[in-house]
């Protein structure tokens, strides 16, 4: 096990907000106790299409034994001599990106993409979050 980023910094240009009763996910999640699912990630400034918003960080492990909405399974992990399966766990260690909701039931399409790459200096896998369209201040950041 290794920590992708042991000291995640706060991302500029985004904020975590509690979902209010008008949000489509608010009602569907009321059946459970209040949790991180009751939040979303919102832009505090305009973002241009293709602009890097930040990096999804967490604990990188071999294998994908844990199932959680906070686990990202790498698809490119067979490149550059890495183990067959890698997963990024952001539930307990991570940054604001873990509060990004999926677009289903919220919007017609997503406005952000998670893009895998490798750090040129270290060879470690990374997951960047980029805007795939212009995003207005106050708009929720949504993934596929």
Structural summary, described in words:
- With 144 residues, this protein is mainly β.
- 3% of the residues lie in helices and 32% in strands.
- The chain has one helix at residues 24-28, and strands at residues 2-3, 14-18, 39-43, 52-56, 59-62, 71-73, 86-89, 101-102, 112-118, 125-131, 142-143.
- A 4-stranded antiparallel β-sheet has the order 1-5-7-6, with no helix packed on it. It has a 3-stranded antiparallel β-sheet with strand order 4-10-9, with no helix packed on it. A two-stranded antiparallel ribbon has the order 2-3.
- A hairpin with a 6-residue loop joins strand 9 (112-118) and strand 10 (125-131).
- The chain is globular and about 40 Å long.
- Mean pLDDT is 80; it is low at 1-7.
SSE topology sketch:
Elements: E1 2-3, E2 14-18, H1 24-28, E3 39-43, E4 52-56, E5 59-62, E6 71-73, E7 86-89, E8 101-102, E9 112-118, E10 125-131, E11 142-143
Parallel strand pairs: 8-11
Antiparallel strand pairs: 1-5, 2-3, 4-10, 5-7, 6-7, 9-10
């Amino acid at each position: 096990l290794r920590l992708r980023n042991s000291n995640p910094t706060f991302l500029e240009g985004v904020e975590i907000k509690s979902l209010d009763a008008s949000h489509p996910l608010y009602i569907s999640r009321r059946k459970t106790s209040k949790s991180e699912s009751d939040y979303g990630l919102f832009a505090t400034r305009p973002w241009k299409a293709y602009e890097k918003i930040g990096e999804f960080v967490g604990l990188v492990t071999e294998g994908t034994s844990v199932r959680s909405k906070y686990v990202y399974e790498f698809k490119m992990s067979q490149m550059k001599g890495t183990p067959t399966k890698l997963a990024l766990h952001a539930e307990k260690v991570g940054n604001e990106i873990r509060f990004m909701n999926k677009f289903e039931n919220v919007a017609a399409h997503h406005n952000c993409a998670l893009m895998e790459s490798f750090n040129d200096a270290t060879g470690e896998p990374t997951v960047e979050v980029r805007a795939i369209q212009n995003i207005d201040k106050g708009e929720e950041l949504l993934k596929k």
